[in-house]
C-alpha cells in the first residue's frame, strides 16, 4: 500500500500544488532492510542477510535523519520527483510548476482508507521504494542538488560517480556545428528542407542506413579487426534497454546470470527489475588483480545448481567496469569454453571498447569467435554510443548476436525502445564521416590517457593507490587505509565522509558488489586539469583530517 | 584450447520463442504483402496500396513550413551545449522545457478545457512503450486488463508479451454503434473472476482505434464509476485526441476528472504520443500523464528503458510551445482529416459500402457484412484475402482487432497522397461493380 503524506486539512486553491511527499518516515525499517539485502549481494546467508542489513539500517537512519533536518519544509516538492537536472540551482523546496497546476491536493486525504485506491504491482513497488536505497543513487541525487561549479558553486559536490566523458565533447560539438543542420534537414539541393524521411515509421530496430553506419563504426573502433554484419544488430534507445531486451530473450523469470564482481551497479536495476532474472556475483580478488577466475565461476555455478537456481548466462563487461581492465584473449577463450561446456550464453558488454587509454590492444569476443571456431549462437555483445562518443542523451544502444532467434525476438522487442529518427539520421552522417571518427577516437584516447595519469598521480599524493586501469572513465582506488573498520560499515562511513566532508561523490565498491571493503570507483573524465589540485585539496580533508 | 562438446542448441527464454508478439496475424501479414509489392504511381501502379497503417501524412507540410520559417530552431540540433548540464544519462525526468511543451500541446488539443501539470508527465519512446510501462506498473504477471473490443491489434503484444498480463475483452457490437456498456463491463469482469484472474485495470482508447469514434460523456462517466467501484486503474489512451474532426466532439477523461474535483483521480493515467496527431512516428515521442504520484515516480524510473532522445526533445520543444503554431496546426489537421474522411465515406457509399459514423482518427470502420459468404471469422478472412490478392488493398480485418462481429474492416486513409487514395477508392468501385454484375 502506497502511503501519501497528509495534506493540510483546509487546502485552498492557492495552496502550493505540490504532490504529496512520497518519502515517508513511517516504518522505513523493512523498506530499507529488504533492498539493502540486495545491495549486500543478495544471498549472503543468515549472517550477512540479517546482521549487516541491521547495521546498515542504523547507519541509514542516521544518514536520513541528518539529511531531513535542514530541508524540513511543509508539503513542498519532494526532490525525487520534481527537481530536474535543468534546475541545477533551484532549491529543493521551490514550487514545482510555474504554470499553476490546479490539481487539488485534497484528494490525497481520500487515499488514507485502504480500499480507496488501487495498488501498484509488486514489480512497481520494488522500483518505487524511496531513493532506491542504493548509495549509488543516493550520492547521485545529492550531487544533483549541490553540484560543483567552478564559478557559481565552488563548494559544491564534485561528481566523480557518473560515467560521463567531457574530455572531447568540444570535438563533437564542432562537428555538429558544421554538419548537423545539413545532415538532419538538408535536402538534395542547397537551401532545401527534406524531412520526409524523418517523419514516417522506421523499422523499430533501426533503419538499414543507420545499422550500416553503426556496424561500420563498431568495426572502426576495433580498428577493423572485426567486420560486423548489420543484419546481426538490433538498435535500441540506449545500452540500458539493449541489456534488458537481451536478458528477456536469454532467461526466464527466476533464472540467473553469473557476473564476475565488482560490476557496474546499474545492472542490478537494468537486468533484475522487470525480467525477474537474478544476478549471482562471482567475486574477483585484488590479490588476483581482480581478474576473472574460471574456478570461481565453476564454484558459483555448482553452488547455484545446488540451490536450484538455473544459470542461463555469464555476463561480463569488456573493458571491465569499475576496474577498467582489458580482458586478455586467453581469458575470453576460457570464458567461451566455460559457457560452451555448460551450454549457456555469454553476454559481453563492450560499451567502453573505444575508450582504451592504456597500451593494451582491445580484443572483442567477436574477434576470438572468428578465429577459434566456437559455436557463435551463444555469444551476444551489448554496445552503445554513450561512452565512446559523448552522446548519452541521444540514446543509441546495440545488441549484436549471431543467434537468429535472438535477433528476431530483439528486433520485435526494440519497438518499446527505438532510436529517434532525427537521431538516426544525424548519426548516420556522423558515423560515416570516417575521418572525423578516426581523429576523434585518437584525440580522445590521448586526452583520456593524460587525465588518467594526472588523476592517479593526484590520488597518490594523498596516499591512495589505484589498480592498474587501461580503459574506461574510472580509476579503481584503494582507500582501505582510510577506513576505520575493515568492513562494509567502515566503507560506508568513509563514503559518507567523502560526500559530506570532502564533498566528492564517488561510487563505493559495495555498490559494485566488491567483497573487499575500501575500494572506490572514481570517474576522471568530467574533470579538467585545473580541477585536479582542487580534488587533491578536497581529498585531504578526509585523508588528513580526523578519523 | 577449444572444448568441442556436442550439445543441443543453447536454450532461449519463453519470451524469445513465444508468438505473443502476434505478428502471425493477418494484420501483419498484410503489411508483409505490401512490403513485397508496394504501390508506386509510376514504377508499380498495380502494387498493393497500404491501407492498414494508421499514419498521418496529411499535415507534415505544416511541420516543414515551421522549420523553414524558424531556422534558428532547426539549428538547435547543433546545440548539445545545453546537454552539458543535461547529459546525465539517467535523466529520466526529461527536459523541463519539453515536458512543459507537451503539457501545453495536450491542453491545446483539449481546447484549453483542462490543465496539465508538466511534472506529472513521464516521457517514453512512443505510446507503445507507455502502454507497456503502465501495464508493468499496475499489474503483476497473471493479472488481467479489461480492453473494450474492437481494439488495436498491437495491444495483444504491447500489453501481454513481456508483462505476462492477460487481456479480457469487453465486447461491443454494432447494435449500439460499438459503444461500451455497463453490462459488457460487468460481463467481462465476471468472466475474469470466474477464471480466477485479478483485474487490475481497464485500458480504453479514446478516440477509438479502429472505430474512429470519440467516446461520449455518458459512457465516460459510466466507465469512471465502474473502475472506482471495482477499485481498479483506468488507462485512457488518447493518442488520437488531436485527430478528432471537431474539438467540441472530444471529451478527455481529464475533463470528467476535473469536473469531479479529481476525486478518485489516483486511478487514472493518460497515454499520449506525437506519432498520430503530429505525424511524427519516427521521432518516438510518447508520454504518460498520471494523477497517481507512485505511478509517476515508478514510471519515471522505469522510463530508463525507453527514454526520448534529448536532441529530439530540444528540437520539438520550441515548436510545441509555440501556441500560434499549435493552434493553427491542430485546427488545420483536423479540417484536412475530416475532409478526407468525408470524401472516403462518400465515395464508398456511392459504390454501396457503408461505414460506421465516425468523428475521429486516421481510418474508417467499414461494414462489409453484406459481402460475406458466411457470417464467420473464416468468411471474413476469406474476404480479406480476396481484397488483398484481387484488389491489392491491405485493409485490416475486424478479427485482428478482436471484433466479435465478422465483416468489419479498418481502412486507413491518411497515410497516402490524395492521388493514391483515389486509386484505392477506384479499386473498391470496380470490385463492387463486378460483384453487382455477377
Note down, in words, how this protein is organized.
The complex is a heterodimer of chains A (547) and B (438). Helix content of chain A is 41%, strand content 10%. Chain A is α/β, with parallel strands linked by helices. In chain A, strand 5 (311-317), helix 12 and strand 6 form a beta-alpha-beta unit. In chain A, helix 1 packs across helix 2 (45-68). The two termini of chain A are 42 Å apart. Residues 1-44 and 68-115 of chain A have low confidence and may be disordered. Chain B is of the alpha/beta class. In chain B, strands 2-8-7-6-5-3-4 form a 7-stranded mixed beta sheet, with helices on both faces. In chain B, strands 9-10-13-12 form a 4-stranded antiparallel beta sheet. In chain B, helix 6 (96-109) packs across helix 13 and helix 7 crosses helix 12. Chain B is globular and about 65 Å long. The termini of chain B are far apart. Chains A and B meet through helix 3, helix 4, helix 6, helix 7 and helix 9 of A and helix 1, helix 3, helix 5, helix 6 and helix 7 of B.
Largest sheet of chain B: 7 strands, mixed
Question: How helix-rich are the residues of chain B, as a percent range?
Answer: 40-55%
* Major sheet attributes of chain A: 7 strands, mixed
Number of strands of chain B: 13
Shape label of chain A: globular
What Rg of chain B do the Cα atoms give? Answer: 22 Å
Nearest-integer average pLDDT of chain B = 91
Q: Number of helical segments of chain B?
A: 16
Q: β content of chain A, as a range?
A: 5-15%
Structural class of chain A: alpha/beta
Distance between the termini of chain B: 74 Å
- What is the radius of gyration of chain A computed over CA atoms, rounded to a whole number of angstroms? 24 Å
User: What is the arithmetic mean of pLDDT of chain A?
Assistant: 80
Poorly predicted segments of chain B: 3-7, 81-90
SSE sequence of chain B, one letter per element? HHEHHHHEHEHEHEHEHEEHHHEEHEEEH
Strand order of the largest sheet of chain A: 2-8-7-6-5-3-4
Through-space gap between termini of chain A: 42 Å
Largest interface: A-B, 116 and 110 residues
Alpha-beta content class of chain B: alpha/beta
Strand order of the largest sheet of chain B: 2-8-7-6-5-3-4
Amino acid at each position: 500500500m502506497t502511503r501519501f503524506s497528509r495534506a493540510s486539512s483546509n487546502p485552498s486553491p492557492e495552496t502550493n500544488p505540490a504532490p504529496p511527499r512520497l518519502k515517508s518516515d513511517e516504518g522505513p525499517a523493512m523498506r530499507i532492510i529488504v533492498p539493502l539485502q540486495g545491495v549486500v549481494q543478495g544471498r549472503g546467508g543468515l549472517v550477512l542477510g540479517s546482521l549487516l542489513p541491521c547495521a546498515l539500517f542504523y547507519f541509514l537512519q542516521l544518514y536520513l535523519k541528518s539529511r531531513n533536518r535542514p530541508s524540513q519544509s511543509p508539503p513542498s516538492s519532494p526532490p525525487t520527483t520534481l527537481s530536474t537536472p535543468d534546475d541545477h540551482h533551484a532549491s529543493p523546496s521551490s514550487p514545482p510548476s510555474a504554470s499553476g497546476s490546479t490539481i487539488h491536493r485534497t484528494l490525497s486525504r481520500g487515499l488514507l482508507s485502504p480500499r480507496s485506491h488501487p495498488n501498484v504491482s509488486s514489480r512497481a513497488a520494488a522500483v518505487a521504494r524511496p531513493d532506491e536505497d542504493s548509495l549509488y543513487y543516493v550520492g547521485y541525487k545529492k550531487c544533483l542538488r549541490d553540484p560543483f561549479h567552478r564559478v557559481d558553486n565552488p563548494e559544491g559536490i564534485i561528481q566523480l560517480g557518473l560515467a560521463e566523458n567531457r574530455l572531447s565533447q568540444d570535438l563533437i560539438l564542432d562537428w555538429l556545428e558544421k554538419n548537423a543542420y545539413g545532415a538532419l534537414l538538408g535536402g538534395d539541393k542547397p537551401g532545401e528542407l527534406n524531412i520526409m524521411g524523418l517523419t514516417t515509421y522506421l523499422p523499430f530496430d533501426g533503419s538499414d542506413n543507420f545499422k550500416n553506419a553503426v556496424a561500420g563504426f563498431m568495426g572502426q573502433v576495433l580498428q577493423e579487426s572485426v567486420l560486423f554484419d548489420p543484419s546481426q544488430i538490433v538498435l535500441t534507445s540506449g545500452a540500458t534497454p539493449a541489456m534488458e531486451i537481451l536478458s528477456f530473450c536469454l532467461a526466464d523469470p527466476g533464472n540467473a546470470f553469473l557476473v564476475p564482481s565488482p560490476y557496474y551497479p546499474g545492472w542490478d536495476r537494468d537486468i533484475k527489475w522487470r525480467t525477474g532474472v537474478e544476478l549471482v556475483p562471482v567475486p574477483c580478488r585484488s590479490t588476483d588483480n581482480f581478474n576473472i577466475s574460471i574456478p570461481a565461476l565453476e564454484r558459483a555455478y555448482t553452488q547455484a545448481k545446488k540451490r536450484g537456481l538455473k544459470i542461463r548466462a555469464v555476463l561480463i563487461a569488456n573493458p571491465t567496469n569499475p576496474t577498467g581492465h582489458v580482458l586478455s584473449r586467453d581469458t575470453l577463450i576460457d570464458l567461451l569454453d566455460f559457457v560452451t561446456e555448460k551450454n549457456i550464453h555469454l553476454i559481453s558488454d563492450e560499451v567502453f571498447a573505444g575508450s582504451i587509454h592504456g597500451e593494451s590492444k582491445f580484443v572483442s569476443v567477436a574477434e576470438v569467435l572468428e578465429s577459434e571456431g566456437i559455436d557463435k549462437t551463444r555469444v551476444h555483445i551489448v554496445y552503445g554510443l554513450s561512452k565512446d562518443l559523448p552522446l548519452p542523451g541521444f540514446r543509441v544502444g546495440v545488441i549484436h548476436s549471431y543467434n537468429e532467434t535472438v535477433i528476431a525476438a530483439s528486433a520485435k522487442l526494440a519497438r518499446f525502445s527505438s532510436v529517434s529518427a532525427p537521431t538516426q539520421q544525424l548519426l548516420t552522417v556522423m558515423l560515416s564521416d570516417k575521418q572525423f571518427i578516426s581523429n576523434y577516437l585518437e584525440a580522445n584516447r590521448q586526452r583520456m590517457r593524460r587525465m588518467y595519469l594526472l588523476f592517479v598521480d593526484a590520488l597518490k599524493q594523498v596516499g591512495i593507490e589505484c589498480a592498474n586501469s587501461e580503459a574506461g572513465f574510472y580509476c579503481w582506488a584503494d582507500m582501505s587505509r582510510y577506513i576505520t573498520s575493515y568492513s562494509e560499515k567502515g566503507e560506508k562511513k568513509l563514503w559518507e565522509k567523502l560526500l559530506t566532508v570532502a564533498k566528492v561523490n564517488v561510487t563505493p565498491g559495495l555498490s559494485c558488489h566488491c567483497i573487499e571493503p575500501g575500494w572506490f570507483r572514481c570517474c576522471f573524465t568530467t574533470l579538467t586539469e585545473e580541477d585536479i589540485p582542487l580534488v587533491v585539496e578536497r581529498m585531504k580533508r578526509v585523508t588528513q583530517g580526523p578519523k | 584450447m577449444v572444448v568441442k562438446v556436442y550439445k543441443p542448441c543453447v536454450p532461449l527464454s519463453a519470451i524469445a520463442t513465444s508468438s505473443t508478439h502476434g505478428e502471425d496475424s493477418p494484420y501483419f501479414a498484410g503489411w508483409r504483402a505490401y512490403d513485397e509489392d508496394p504501390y508506386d504511381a509510376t514504377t508499380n501502379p498495380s502494387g498493393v496500396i497500404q491501407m492498414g497503417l494508421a499514419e498521418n501524412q496529411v499535415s507534415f507540410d505544416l511541420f516543414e513550413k515551421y522549420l523553414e520559417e524558424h531556422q534558428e530552431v532547426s539549428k538547435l540540433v547543433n546545440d548539445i551545449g545545453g546537454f552539458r548540464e543535461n547529459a546525465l544519462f539517467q535523466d529520466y525526468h526529461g527536459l523541463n522545457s519539453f515536458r512543459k511543451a507537451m503539457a501545453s500541446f495536450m491542453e491545446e488539443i483539449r481546447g484549453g478545457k483542462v490543465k496539465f501539470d508538466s511534472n506529472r508527465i513521464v516521457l517514453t519512446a512512443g505510446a507503445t512503450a507507455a502502454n507497456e510501462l503502465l501495464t508493468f506498473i499496475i499489474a503483476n504477471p497473471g493479472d488481467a486488463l479489461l480492453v473494450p473490443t474492437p481494439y488495436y491489434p498491437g495491444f495483444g503484444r504491447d500489453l501481454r508479451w513481456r508483462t505476462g498480463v492477460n487481456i479480457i475483452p469487453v465486447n461491443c457490437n454494432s447494435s449500439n454503434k460499438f459503444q461500451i456498456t455497463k453490462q459488457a463491463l460487468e460481463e467481462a469482469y465476471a468472466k475474469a473472476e470466474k477464471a480466477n484472474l485479478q483485474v487490475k485495470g481497464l485500458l480504453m482508447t479514446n478516440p477509438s482505434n479502429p472505430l474512429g469514434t470519440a467516446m461520449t460523456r455518458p459512457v465516460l462517466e459510466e466507465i469512471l464509476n465502474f473502475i472506482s467501484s471495482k477499485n481498479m486503474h483506468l488507462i485512457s489512451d488518447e493518442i488520437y485526441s488531436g485527430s478528432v474532426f471537431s474539438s467540441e466532439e472530444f471529451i478527455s477523461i481529464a475533463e470528467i476528472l476535473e469536473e469531479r474535483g479529481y476525486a478518485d483521480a489516483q486511478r487514472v493515467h493518460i497515454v499520449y504520443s506525437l506519432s498520430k496527431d503530429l505525424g511524427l512516428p519516427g521521432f518516438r515521442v510518447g508520454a504518460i500523464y498520471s494523477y497517481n504520484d507512485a505511478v509517476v515516480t515508478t514510471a519515471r524510473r522505469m522510463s530508463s528503458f525507453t527514454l526520448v532522445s534529448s536532441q529530439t526533445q530540444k528540437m520539438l520543444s520550441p515548436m510545441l510551445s509555440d501556441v500560434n503554431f499549435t493552434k493553427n496546426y491542430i485546427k488545420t489537421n483536423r479540417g484536412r482529416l475530416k475532409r478526407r474522411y468525408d470524401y472516403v465515406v462518400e465515395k464508398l457509399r456511392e459504390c454501396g459500402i457503408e461505414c460506421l459514423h465516425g468523428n475521429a482518427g486516421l481510418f474508417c470502420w467499414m461494414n462489409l457484412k453484406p459481402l460475406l459468404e458466411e457470417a464467420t471469422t473464416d468468411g471474413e478472412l476469406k474476404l480479406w484475402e480476396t481484397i488483398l490478392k484481387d484488389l491489392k488493398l491491405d485493409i485490416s480485418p475486424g478479427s485482428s482487432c478482436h471484433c466479435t462481429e465478422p465483416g468489419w474492416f479498418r481502412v486507413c486513409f491518411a497515410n497516402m497522397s490524395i492521388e493514391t487514395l483515389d486509386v484505392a477508392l477506384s479499386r473498391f468501385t470496380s470490385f463492387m461493380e463486378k460483384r453487382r454484375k455477377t
